[in-house]
């Protein structure tokens, strides 16, 4: 239904904004990447970038399939 689609889109936008930051915090602080110095920082940054790209691609594909309907 229309409301379910809107809910899905709002959830994906929320994930797109906050999951990369949470992934950085998880990798850099909780998994002790901070102890690795610059290598840990770069790894945490790359993992958060990957998280952003995955969710952006999901959103792009979802919007492109639903725009044709």
Overall description:
There is one protein chain. The protein is an all-alpha fold and 69 residues long. It has one domain (2-67). 86% of the residues lie in helices and 0% in strands. It is elongated. The two termini are 13 Å apart.
What summary fits the major beta sheet? none
How big is the Rg?
15 Å
Give the CA-based shape: elongated
Q: Cα distance, first to last residue?
A: 13 Å
Q: What's the helix and strand layout?
A:
Layout: H1 2-30, H2 38-67
Quick structural summary:
Helices cover 86% and strands 0% of the residues. It is mainly α. The longest helix is centred in the C-terminal third of the chain and has 30 residues, at 38-67.
Keywords:
single chain, 69 residues, mainly alpha, 2 helices, 0% strand
């Amino acid at each position: 239904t229309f409301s379910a689609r809107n809910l899905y889109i709002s959830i994906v936008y929320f994930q797109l904004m906050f999951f990369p930051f949470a992934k950085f915090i998880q990798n850099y602080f909780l998994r002790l990447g901070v102890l690795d110095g610059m290598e840990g920082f770069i790894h945490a940054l790359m993992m958060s970038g990957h998280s952003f790209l995955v969710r952006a691609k999901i959103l792009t594909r979802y919007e492109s399939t639903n725009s044709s309907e």
